[in-house]
Amino acid sequence: MTEVNIVNLIKNFSGMTRPAVDNISINIQNGELIALLGPSGCGKTTILKMITGLLTPDNGDILLDNQSILSVPTEKRNVVMVFQNYLLFPYMNVNENVGFSLKMKGDDPKVINKRVQEMLELVKLPDIGERRPKQLSGGQQQRVALARALIANPRLLLLDEPLSNLDAHLRDEMRELITSIQKKLGVTCMFVTHDQEEAVLLADKIALIFDGKLQNFAEPKEFYEKPINVSAAKFFGGVNFIELNKNTNYFDSSIGKIISNQKNVDELHSKCIATIRPENIKISRENIYQDNFFKGKIKSVIFSGTHTRYKIVINNLNLECSLQSLGIQNINKEDEVFVNLPKDKIWIMND
To answer: Residue 107's pLDDT is what?
Structure first.
C-alpha cells in the first residue's frame, strides 16, 4: 500500500487561457480508492499522466510514501495506468498480454505462467488465455487490461474512465470487480470519471475538479449533504437554491424566515445561499409543521417509476420535491400545499 501526496500541482498547455491543472493538492492514504471527478477538460487525466511521468508538471510535486517521484523515470515508478481504450497488444494472446511486463523484466517463464493464471482468475477470466484481443468483448478486454496492470504489483493503480466504454449491465459487474480486487489487494487506486454516480458508488473519497481547480476533496456523502458551492451542488443533482440574508438566529429569504441547524454559521457571509435536496422537502395539504413551512402551489407532477417529482412555486421561487413511488395521492397539479424545509436538511453556503 502506498500513500500519495499531490502538492501544489500546476500544468499549462500552450493555447489554453488557464492552467490545465491549477495548484491542486490532494493527500491519499494507504489503500484508498479515490475518484477524480469533473467535466471533460477539467484536468483529471492530465493529473494521472503527471503521476505516471507521461507529462511533467510545471510546478509542484508528487510524492509516494513521502518520496518525490518527479526525477524517477516512468518505467521505474511502479505506477501502472489502465487507459480508457485498454491498449492491449493485438498480435499477442491474453496470456502474453498479461505477462508482458514480467517478460520484459526477464522473469522465469514458469513464474510468469503461474502469475498470469493467478491474475486471470482474479479478474474471473481463467479460461481465455489463448484468445486474441479481437476475440474478446469490451468487458473482457477491460478485465485483461486490469490483470496486466496488477501483475506487476504496482504501488499505485490508475484507471482512466474505467467504465465509460461498457454497457450498463457490464458497468455494474466491472464496478463490483474493481472494488473487490482493490480491497483484496490493498492497492492504492485513483480513477478518473465524469459520472458522479460512478464516483459515489466506487470511491472512498472524491476530488471534484472544475476548470483545473480542486473544488473539494471529501467522502461522497458530503457532496450531497454539504456541497462546497452552488456549482458543486448542481453537479451532484442539486436543483433547489434560495438566496439568503443572514441574521442573528435565522435567515431572511424571498419566501420568509428560514431556520437551520447548521454549525458553521459564523463562517457564512451576510449574503449566502441555501440548498436542500428534492428528496428532503416535505409537502402536505394541511399544515402539520412547526417551523420552516411555507405555502406554495403545485405547478407539475411527474411520475418517473420509482419516484414522483413535484414542482412547486412559493412567491415566485421554484422548488422541486421528490417522493418515493406514487407520491401523495391527494396532491395534484394546481393544488395549494404547505411546504416544509426541515432545518436539519438545509445546507447554507457562501458562493
So the answer is: 87
Q: Burial code of 164-192, b = ≥16 C-beta within 10 A, e = fewer?
A: eebeeebbebbbebbbebbeebebbbbbb
pLDDT value of residue 199: 94
Letter string b/e over residues 277-301, b meaning 16 or more CB atoms within 10 A of that residue's CB: bbebbbbeeeeebeebbbebebeeb
Half-sphere exposure of 125 (CA within 13 A, CB side): 25
Question: For residue 259, what is its C-alpha cell?
Answer: 431556520
pLDDT given at position 140? 86
Pick from 191, 233, 232: nearest CA to 208: 232
Query: What span, in angstroms and rounded, lies between the C-alpha atoms of 277 and 322?
Result: 9
Which residues in the chain come in under a pLDDT of 70? none
- Torsion on CA atoms 333, 336, 337, 338, rounded to nearest 10: 150
pLDDT at 163: 78
What's the pLDDT at 137? Answer: 85
pLDDT at 342: 95
pLDDT at 266: 87
d(CA 56, CA 253): 49
CATH 2.40.50.100 in the chain, residues?
A: 239-350
Fold exhibited by the domain 239-350: OB fold (Dihydrolipoamide Acetyltransferase, E2P) (2.40.50)
Q: What is the pTM of this model?
A: 0.89
CA-to-CA dists, residue 242 to 174, 259, 296, 351, angstroms: 39, 13, 15, 12
